[in-house]
Amino acid sequence: MSSRNIFVAVDESSHSVGAYNFALDNIAKKDDIVTVIVVVSSESEREMAVERTTTLIRAIADPDHLDVKYKVQVLVPTALQKIGPLLCDLVEEKKPDMLVLGSAGKSHLEGFLVGSVSNHCIAHANCAVIVARVTPADELKAQKKASRIPQNHPMYV
Questions:
Q1: What is the CA radius of gyration of the chain?
Q2: I want to staple 111 with a disulfide (CB 3.0 to 4.6 A). Which of 19, 20, 47, 106 is the partner?
Q3: Which parts of the sequence belong to the UspA domain (predicted)?
Q4: In sequence order, which residues have a C-beta less than 8 Å from that of residue 67 and are 6 or more positions away?
Q5: What global pTM score does this model have?
Q6: Distance separating the N- and C-terminal Cα atoms of the chain
Q7: Is the pLDDT of residue 53 over 90?
Q8: What is the largest CA-CA distance in the chain?
Q9: Exposure string (b/e) for 19-35, b if CB count within 10 Å is 16 or more?
């Protein structure tokens, strides 16, 4: 079986961290590449975003999935560009096997009124889109896993 490229969009919220853990627990297999996507508001934030995201990945990485490789991709939208279309453009360009997003818990009405990144991606991304919802049990499980990670493991490609 060839490796797959799985994109996971994160923003350091518990919802996106939950999506990342969901991807590792339920989707990622040996030799897959998990590309963690981070959106920042300016080019000057790029380097810091890579450092923060790398630290976040190390803190919550699953010790049962150390054979999965990781990448970090930082996106900087233009002034008028929204995150949903930006993610869909990246998906169109890079052609991942799937995109995993966290659910912020908005109601259907809130998502319709203020916009929803996950709704936009479900409707427009040219790959499978999975929206993961975090439960309190998921958060507790993630905290337990984080304490078992070898900090010097070469998990990045």
A1: 15
A2: 106
A3: 4-133
A4: 30, 31
A5: 0.78
A6: 19
A7: no
A8: 45
A9: bbbbbbbebbeeebbbb
Whole-number pLDDT of residue 124: 96
Q: Which domains, ranges and CATH numbers included, belong to the chain?
A: 5-146 (3.40.50.620)
In this structure, which amino acid lies at residue 26?
N
- Asked if residues 142 and 13 have their Cβ atoms less than 8 Å apart, the reply is no
> What single-letter amino acid sits at 36?
V
Q: In whole angstroms, how far apart are CA 20 and each of 27, 101, 110, 133, 147?
A: 10, 8, 24, 11, 17
- Are 100 and 7 spatial neighbours (Cβ–Cβ below 8 Å)? yes
Token digits for 29? Answer: 């297999």
What's the average model confidence in pLDDT over 13-21? 81
